[in-house]
Amino acid sequence: MTKISIFASGSGSNAEQIIKYFEDSKEFQIDSIFCNNKNAYVLQRAKKHNIDTVVFTKADFETNDIVLKKLQERKIDLVVLAGFLLKVPDNIINAYPNKIINIHPALLPKYGGKGMYGLNVHKAVVNAKEKESGITIHFVDGIYDNGKIIFQAKCKVSKNDTPEEVALKVHQLEHKYFPQMIESIGKNNLKKI
Ligand code: GRF
């Protein structure tokens, strides 16, 4: 059984899609939601699906081994960042080489990096008059949105699209592809590492 923890900071619609996708899986188990915001809606989604939650502070995450120890205690094989806003510190990156993946709501390497999250990304895409946007699923290393790209999917951006409309299209791609990509990374990649 591949045990997965999802890290999320906010609403958690991706987290919920992933939970539902693996609900009856015999190979994958969504073990827990890790969250740095005690008021995040993702915690209610986790409760609805009877998934354990681990809530921690930014300070704990960045300055000690509390979060790493929790992952190790729970014997987590794969960490999935789904709308998680903090930069993952080196102690966790080093303990999980090529076993942490992130989804970014744009076509990296464009529109990534610090501050590029949520509507900021879609505003930048609209302001640049891009004709397409999309999603990028990638491994996580010590630099924001920098790790090896595993998968991208695109959507069209029309001339009159607002950032909110682009966000909607991108979210649909995320919900469609992220769970199945996690499954394929889990099946193909983890065994080789
Ligand atoms: C998603 O667009 C994801 O790509 C980004 O943050 C957003 C999270 O949305 N990193 P949700 O919390 O899963 O609804």
In short:
The protein is an alpha/beta fold and 193 residues long. The protein is 40% helix and 23% strand.
Polypeptide structure, described:
The chain contains seven helices and seven strands; from the N terminus they run E-H-E-H-E-H-H-E-H-E-H-E-E-H. It is an alpha/beta fold. It has a seven-stranded mixed sheet with strand order 3-2-1-4-5-6-7, covered by helices on one side. Helix 1 packs across helix 7. The longest helix is centred in the last third of the chain and has 30 residues. The radius of gyration is 16 Å and the shape is globular. The model has no long low-confidence stretch (mean pLDDT 95). Bound molecules: 5-O-phosphono-beta-D-ribofuranosylamine. The site of 5-O-phosphono-beta-D-ribofuranosylamine has 15 residues, from helix 1, strand 5 and helix 7.
> For the residues shown, what is the average pLDDT?
95
| Large-scale geometry | globular
How far the N terminus sits from the C terminus, by CA atoms, comes to 16 Å
Order of helical and strand elements = EHEHEHHEHEHEEH
Low-confidence stretches: none
Helix content: 25-40%
Number of helices: 7
Largest sheet: 7 strands, mixed
Order of strands, main sheet, comes to 3-2-1-4-5-6-7
Instruction: List the ligand species.
Output: 5-O-phosphono-beta-D-ribofuranosylamine
| Beta-strand proportion | 15-25%
